[in-house]
Amino acid sequence: MSTTPEHDARIAKMTFASVYPHYVTKVEKKGRTVEELHTVIEWLTGFDDAKLQSLIDEKVTFEAFFSEASVNPNAELIKGVICGYRIEEIETPLTREVRYLDKLVDELAKGRKMEKILR
């Protein structure tokens, strides 16, 4: 299943700072912590807490966010469906990376063990 160019452009222009509070709410509602969320984000992107906060403060787009990231080589092991798309079939690299992050947050919120999330 391939995403549309409009969908990919919308994701690229979305700011990480606008989505981050939703990630926090989602994981905290399910009894997980912001520290665990940051661990997951750091595993995927390489960003420590200070760098993450600076990207939030700068209100960077997902395009800029992932252009600065060192995406974990094991991210390719993230599989499944998120937002109606099968991650491994998404052709646009940026959209796939954003969906990797969404999937990791979902797994965290669903109570999956950290060792399993961090492949």
Which properties best describe this structure?
119 residues, mainly alpha, Helicase, Ruva Protein, domain 3, two-stranded antiparallel sheet, 2 strands, 61% helix, globular
Task: Please characterize this protein's 3D structure.
Pfam families: DUF2200. This is DUF2200 domain-containing protein. InterPro entries: SP1917_dom_sf, UCP033199. It comes from Phaeocystidibacter luteus. With 119 residues, the chain is mainly alpha-helical. It has one domain (5-112): Helicase, Ruva Protein, domain 3 (Orthogonal Bundle). Helix content is 61%, strand content 3%. It has 7 helices and 2 strands. The chain has helices at 5-13, 16-29, 34-45, 49-57, 62-68, 93-109, 114-117, and strands at 81-82, 85-86. The protein has a two-stranded antiparallel sheet with strand order 1-2. A hairpin with a 2-residue loop joins β1 and β2 (85-86). The longest helix has 17 residues, at 93-109. The mean pLDDT is 95.
Q: How would you summarize this macromolecular structure in one to three sentences?
A:
Helix content is 61%, strand content 3%.
Report the total helices: 7
Number of strands: 2
Query: Radius of gyration over alpha carbons?
Result: 13 Å
Q: What strand line-up does the widest sheet have? A: 1-2
**Which CATH class is shown?**
Mainly Alpha
Helix-strand pattern = HHHHHEEHH
Percent helix, as a range, is 55-70%
The CATH topology label is: Helicase, Ruva Protein, domain 3
Low-confidence stretches: none
Which percent band covers the strand fraction?
Answer: under 5%
Mean pLDDT: 95
Fourth CATH level, the homologous superfamily: uncharacterized protein sp1917 domain
What structural class do you assign from the helix and strand content?
mainly alpha
Distance from first to last alpha carbon:
24 Å
Shape: globular
CATH architecture: Orthogonal Bundle
Major pleated sheet: 2 strands, antiparallel
**Overall number of structural domains:** 1
Organism: Phaeocystidibacter luteus
Protein name: DUF2200 domain-containing protein
InterPro entries: SP1917_dom_sf, UCP033199
